[in-house]
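Researcher: I'd like a structural prediction for the single chain below. Treat it as a standalone chain; there are no partners to consider.
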Amino acid sequence: MKIQSTGLYQEMQAMASEAGRVRPQDPNKLPVQATAATSSAQFGDLLSDALNTVAGLQRDAKEKVTAVEMGDRSVSLAEAMIAKNKSSVAFDATMQVRNKLIEAYKDIMSMPV
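Model: Treating it as a single chain, here is the predicted structure.
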């Protein structure tokens, strides 16, 4: 899974600074925080790209394992095993992210309003 940490970190900083901004409108009203409509689309794109990367790794691993099983000399057993382990690690990481997202969703839904 190829996620660029610097871009993600910068995006998180930008969202944190955006969330910290307050627009005073009326002194009698509570301040309203500014929200960025594009942050959810960017997160969705990031998540979609990550899932596509994992799917690509799995396809590549399957192709290499099949090539080794069929006796193709252009693909070595080591290449197939490395591709299989890469796809396994990427899938495990994806499952961990999914579990954290579900846990966060459940925490938010159980909050009293």
